[in-house]
Fold each of these.
Amino acid sequence: DIQMTQSPSTLSASVGDRVTITCRASQSISRSLAWYQQKPGKAPKLLIYRASSLESGVPSRFSGSGSGTEFTLTISNLQPDDFATYYCQQYNTYPWTFGQGTKVEIK
Amino acid sequence: QVQLQESGGGVVQPGRSLRLSCAASGFTLSTYNMYWVRQAPGTGLEWVAVISYDGNNQYYADSVKGRFTISRDNSKNTLYLEMDSLRAEDTAVYYCARIRIAMSTGDAYDIWGQGTMVTVSP
């Protein structure tokens, strides 16, 4: 199975900050990577697909980059609504696997 | 409005069975591969199973293989997950999810249900 490792596990930031979350795959997944945002008690919400494509309706302060084994999610100008847990997911090879999550907390 | 709505969760004893349903609305289920994803309390997300848009192919996580069966009834626009020989470690919120592109075999999940809780406890 392809292991997805996110860092950091927790991130403390303030409104207006620029934050970056990293996701590493245990083997190359090309650009078959998605990022999701999840809030407590809610289903995940798709933010980014194909490593860097912004899902319709998602604010442009979210951006993704990377290919192969190294990927990043960047949130510029962090807003109060952005405090949540973020997951990366590879869909290159079954079983599709998720990172363990990064919780973005208010500093 | 494109939606998925799960049902069928509840409390069940170890070793027993449960069937989850996922009703789709606002789109034609028969053109999409469909998935079940679960999340144990306080933990991350785990892919459980996939079924092809035509129902001819299914794949399972090793943790559920041989115990869970994914199926679909496209005439009813409904996805199912039959769960047998349930274990305590199957306790989780179960989500059904749709892949972004119709008839694609590899893409992100763009539509998720609200989830249904399954608790396996004596």
Note: Chain A touches chain B at residues 32, 34, 36, 42-46, 49-50, 55, 87, 89, 91-92, 94-101 (CB under 8 Å).
Amino acid sequence: NAGVTQTPKFQVLKTGQSMTLQCAQDMNHEYMSWYRQDPGMGLRLIHYSVGAGITDQGEVPNGYNVSRSTTEDFPLRLLSAAPSQTSVYFCASRRLNTEAFFGQGTRLTVV
Amino acid sequence: RKEVEQDPGPFNVPEGATVAFNCTYSNSASQSFFWYRQDCRKEPKLLMSVYSSGNEDGRFTAQLNRASQYISLLIRDSKLSDSATYLCVVLLSGSARQLTFGSGTQLTVLP
């Protein structure tokens, strides 16, 4: 039972480059979310999805895009990486009114 | 005011000690409550859900006070392996996005 799988675990980008962080879950959860975690800031919601074809913005969406073509997958795209996007990114999934399960995280450095 | 507030610590306690963490939340419509544990550079993992009547899981006891909008976590007989950051998490009922995280309380259990 894999749960929530994120790839890659580590990534270094140059300013202006684009990339996609992958997230997949095998629990048939409706809700999927992307968070970033910075020191002293806690987890902040970037984008979320309530089902295939439905996405919405969280509190810090600028510079990121998402799509949800299947229940299982929820990729996060960085359009033009900036140093301010250096962070640890977590993908999570859950059912309505239940706890969230997290992927192992992606440590992203933008230089 | 932050939606979920926690004392950041750090709490440094000797093995065997009892330690308590507190968390307050601002939205009275909050419906579900959780404590997560996050080890250094790892993903958050569910420690326990918090029920209205209070609940216990081994050495861990969680309490909820809806009138005061306050959640607590008590750890008895602390072990070295309890060293981690503890995150208070609040969820609005039926909400797709409102899984709100506190910034976490850091615990170090000393030998």
Note: The CA atoms of residues 40 and 56 of chain A lie 25 Å apart.
